[in-house]
Amino acid sequence: MKVWRDEDGEKFENSDVCFGREYKPDTDKVDVAKISIRGRFPEKGWGYLEESHEMAVIVRGEGYALKKDGEQFDLKSGDVIYIEPMTKWCWGGDMDMIVVCGPAFQPEKHKLEEV
Q: E-assigned strands of the chain?
């Protein structure tokens, strides 16, 4: 068992509109991040994870997840969303969320597809 305090998380900034803190146990099976979205991320194009399943709980604000095929999921505080690996999509809005990835997030397996 392990406990992290907020400040123990590793800060990251994917862009001016996507930033937060990541918390990784000593395993590659799962990790969690506190992520803030303040606009559209990625700004242009689509992101996807090659292997990780991703689940997010919206804890403040509202926004959306938009799939490349045009399907949009409007999100507000309290909602939970699941995203399968290889799904091309983006976040948008003004929201904070808790995001769990399994297997654990690996930056080299997070891809961006330009428009």
A: 10-15, 18-23, 31-41, 46-49, 53-67, 72-76, 80-83, 89-102, 110-113
pTM of the model: 0.93
The two three-digit tokens of residue 12, written as one number: 């990251």
Q: CA geometry: angle at 70 spanning 58 and 81, to 5°?
A: 20
Q: Which stretches of the chain drop beneath a pLDDT of 50?
A: none
| C-alpha span between 15 and 6 (Å, rounded) | 21
Question: What is the residue-wise DSSP string for 41-65?
Answer: ESSSSEEEESS-EEEEEEEEEEEEE
| Cα 8-48-104 angle, rounded to 5 deg | 35
- Among 11, 31, 37, 33, smallest CA distance to 90 is for 37
With tokens 């948008």, the residue in question is 92
